[in-house]
Specification:
With 383 residues, the protein is an alpha/beta fold. Among the domains are: 140 residues, Rossmann fold; 116 residues, RNA polymerase sigma factor, region 2, helix turn helix motif (Rna Polymerase Sigma Factor, Chain: A, Orthogonal Bundle), CATH 1.10.1740.10. 45% of the residues lie in helices and 15% in strands. Strands 4-3-2-1-5-6-7 form a seven-stranded parallel β-sheet, sandwiched between helices. It has a four-stranded mixed β-sheet with strand order 9-8-10-11, covered by helices on one side.
């Protein structure tokens, strides 16, 4: 039977890869709702191909434009309420949460409240609101199935392995484009250099997070909530080839690793089809042509964002939310040419220094913390 899905962030990198999985699935999956932003030409192509019953865009003007072009039979909504409508579409059995940044939190929470299983690519949802999101998911009996390649790898390695047998999980990191760059030149890095990831095709924000290794820090915090492990049992290792996507070390010394080509369609497919595995003709590994697989410890002096993420996560409460908000402001400022690359962790550290780890008991607590941290980050940058 076909599984009906809604996609939050359909025109982004994960969204387009998700729709390619649907395209290849031979009717195993059906798109019932799409939420996009402002990339209307691409959205119109998606509407024409997948014919969802509901579509959301950024604002009312774009909604009128899309409604006129889409024709009858497709409802077009907009803004935050539009995203929530897509996330809670009555026919959707699973919601692919692929919006970039903390903006994805509210619609993802709405989907959980509505009892939808989540294919989670928006790591900021768990970073900013881990205790609130997981508590609600537990109450609603909702599955949070990871789409990030690293968390998907851990999820796959854990199939048939009880958590009582797990010593630690190991997230692999490529090291990004500046792994071996002279540290003295980091102040002159351009946006174009920062978004040029050596292994993965990703959006600008996540590519910059990869370059600072904040992306791995966010993944550490996400892993804490997905797998309910303390931070001292979550490790990071640099693996520049991105062939081993992550590993689970068991208490008996055995290590289970998940390998594959760097292609996000693989973890997306697994999230949509779990517990089944489906052959969609995606590329596999040619072991005879693989480069040597190498590993090294991350340099926390060179990549302080990873250290800051462990600091915020270990302190807990509202600090991971503040970390995420400050990082988003700093990355936006770097992309706009108002902040040097090497100052991104400086902004985050300054915000963390000013905030105490308050408990997060509700979505309102999360949103207040997010807003306050953004104000402090803007003030520090001088915006």
């Amino acid at each position: 039977m076909e599984k009906k899905i809604a996609v939050l962030g359909s025109t982004g990198s994960i969204g387009t890869s998700t729709l390619d999985v649907v395209r290849r699935s031979g009717g195993r999956f059906k798109v019932v709702a799409l939420a996009a932003g402002r990339n209307i030409p691409l959205l119109m192509e998606q509407i024409e191909e997948f014919r969802p019953g509901l579509v959301s865009v950024a604002d009312e003007g774009l909604a009128r434009e899309v409604a006129a072009a889409a024709g009858p039979g497709i409802e077009v909504v907009h803004g935050k309420e539009g995203c929530k409508a897509v996330a809670t579409h009555p026919e959707a059995q699973m919601v692919v949460s692929a919006m970039v940044g903390a903006i994805g939190l509210v619609p993802t929470m709405a989907a959980i409240e509505a009892g939808k299983d989540i294919a989670l690519a928006n790591k900021e949802t768990l970073v900013a609101a881990g205790p609130v999101v997981t508590r609600l998911a537990d109450e609603k009996g909702v599955k949070l199935i990871p789409v990030d390649s690293e968390h998907s790898a851990i999820f796959q390695c854990l199939q048939g392995v009880g958590m009582e047998h797990v010593k630690r999980i190991v997230l692999t990191a490529s090291g990004g484009p500046f792994l071996n760059r002279d540290a003295a030149s980091l102040g002159e890095i351009t946006v174009e250099e920062a978004v040029s990831h050596p292994n993965w095709e990703m959006g600008a924000k996540i590519s910059i997070d990869s370059a600072t290794m904040m992306n791995k820090g966010l993944e550490v915090i996400e892993a804490r909530w997905l797998f309910r492990l303390p931070y001292h049992r979550i490790s990071v290792v640099i693996h520049p080839q991105s062939i081993i996507h992550s590993m689970v070390e068991c208490v008996d010394g055995s290590v289970i690793a998940q390998m594959g080509v760097p292609d996000m369609r693989g973890p997306i497919l697994y999230a949509l089809s779990w517990p089944e595995r489906i052959d969609l003709g995606l590329p596999g590994l040619d072991f005879t042509s693989l480069p040597g697989l190498t590993f090294q410890e991350p340099d926390l002096e060179r990549f302080p964002c990873l250290r800051l993420a462990y600091r915020a996560g270990t302190a807990g409460g509202s600090l991971p939310c503040a970390l995420n908000a400050a990082n988003e402001v700093a990355v936006e400022a770097f992309m706009a040419g108002r902040l040097k690359f090497f100052r991104i962790p400086e902004v985050i550290a300054a915000v963390l220094d000013e905030m105490a780890p308050e408990p997060l008991n509700s979505l309102d607590d999360v949103l207040r913390t997010d807003a306050l941290a953004r104000l402090k980050a803007h003030a520090y940058i001088g915006l």
